[in-house]
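Sat 14:20. Reprocessing the chain from the morning session after the first attempt stalled halfway. Input below, unchanged.
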Amino acid sequence: MTKPLPPASTSELMARVNDIAGLTLGEVAASYAFNTPENLLREKGWIGQLIEYVLGATAASKPEPDFEHLGIELKTLPISYSGKPLETTYVSITPLTNLHGVTWQNSVVKKKLSHVLWLPILSERELAPTDRIIGNGFLWQPSALQEAQLKKDWEELTEMIALGNIEQINGHFGQVLQLRPKAANSKALTQAIGPNGKEILTLPRGYYLKTEFTRQILAEQFGVG
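Finished this time. Tokens:
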């Protein structure tokens, strides 16, 4: 099959989402002749790449929502048999320098999380990648409380970065948003603000949504624990 064009509207996007609900990743990959790895150890991004391809996402790695013309970000969410998230959700890479003038309102995190298409995927470890089942996708926008939580965490973490405290940040910081290393290997270093304002080399960092936050999103949508 030819590569799907970007959906022209939100309703067209959701029609595509509904078309793949209940199918396995293997079934979807086969119907689009999409290359399938034997395991995900070396192909961790395969699931996201497959879903982006099938739904017609356009942003790739740009700091824009995946469906740029619709302003909608796609997030696949691995879940357990009981419907709970199995891991944190990656949001975006974090700027570690040139933070002057950066605010929550113009941040990539806010842009990415303003309108999200969540796509739960049954992903228990015993299931081969091709046997994992796509659930019912849904659109979500943060409530005033949720955005306040995200903004508070983002501002506190950004302030720590700006003050040269990047190496003190770990996954325990933040109520709903955490900051942790995001790199292919330990040699992939980048510049950051260090103590006394001097530049240092450190691992790139990424923002992730904590599982309790995404569990609450699922609970609001489906009424699961």
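The first strand starts at residue 73 and ends at 79.
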